[in-house]
Design goal:
The chain has helices at about 5-15, 70-90, 145-155; strands spanning about 25, 30, 35-40, 45-50, 55-65, 95-100, 105-115, 120-130, 135-140, 160. The chain is an alpha+beta fold. The chain has a seven-stranded antiparallel sheet, with helices on both faces. Strands 1-2-10 form a three-stranded antiparallel sheet. Helix 1 runs parallel beside helix 3. The longest helix has 17 residues, at about 70-90. It is globular, with a radius of gyration of 15 Å.
Length: about 170
């Protein structure tokens, strides 16, 4: 899975605003994937697409920001454990890629294959840290055909550096 492509797109355009209909969740403003089902719960918004013809699916979960430790790698390790290892039993120490955006966000990304109910899929976690906060986006998919739509979402995303982190975020997966 080409998670470095997703990271590169996110890095290159985290500050760019798309011209399509945008939505805001927590510190993120973005253009959601077209024709995907949206499900909002306290602390998380999910976008889901299932291709009944191919059996392919993708779920993108954006989690509300939390206070940063001040170290992007530590933020990523905390989020990876809570959002990937604990719920999906993925490997504890994935190979990560880290870059800094032109806006000053430090972004750490990793992907891991998992088995869920007998199905093989990938979990991709992207954690943006900076300005006293961190935000995580977890993508679960079994078909690389979704890569372009994931890239478009990240390309449209803008994070608010000035927003204050709420202490009441419930980011349970």
């Amino acid at each position: 899975l080409r998670y470095s492509l997703v990271l590169s797109v996110f890095m290159a355009s985290v500050h760019t605003q798309a011209f399509s209909q945008t939505e805001t969740f927590d510190i993120a403003t973005y253009t959601p994937p077209k024709d995907w089902k949206k499900d909002s719960k306290p602390g998380v918004v999910n976008y889901t697409n299932v291709n009944a013809r191919t059996g392919g699916f993708c779920v993108i979960a954006m989690f509300a920001s939390t206070a940063s430790t001040g170290d992007a790698e530590k933020d990523f390790e905390r989020e990876w454990k809570a959002l990937v290892v604990t719920p999906f039993k993925a490997e504890a120490n994935p190979k990560t890629e880290t870059q800094t955006t032109t806006d000053g966000w430090e972004v750490v990304t990793a992907a891991a294959p998992i088995k869920l109910d007998g199905a093989e899929l990938y979990i991709l976690l992207t954690v943006a840290s900076g300005f006293g906060k961190t935000m995580s986006i977890r993508t679960s998919l079994n078909d690389e055909a979704y890569t372009a739509q994931i890239d478009e979402l990240f390309a449209s995303m803008e994070l608010d550096k000035t927003a204050v982190v709420s202490n009441n975020n419930n980011t349970q997966p």
